[in-house]
Give the backbone structure.
Amino acid sequence: MLSVLIETMNDEEGLARTLSSLVGAAVEGVVREVIICDRGSSDHTARVADHAGCVWLEAADIADGIGRARGDWLLLLEPGARPGGDWTEAVLAHASHSTG
């Protein structure tokens, strides 16, 4: 359903926080893939993305990630962002009304 895109550079801790907040949605099938668009990190950002099973795009920006996305919907997040509340329920409700 969702392709999550995160553009980052040297923010391994923020990325880890964001990815951990997406686990439940991935288990429920709301998040199809997470694409990391890296702008040249020199820390352990790539390792965090790899351990989480993300698609890693090196020297890439959001436009590159959008071109690679396979989901029906896109969710763009910054490293450190954590969707709150029942956001997965809101996504599912919106998608069911939008697809008829």
Observations:
- The radius of gyration is 13 Å.
- The CA atoms of residues 3 and 92 lie 14 Å apart.
- The chain has five helices and four strands.
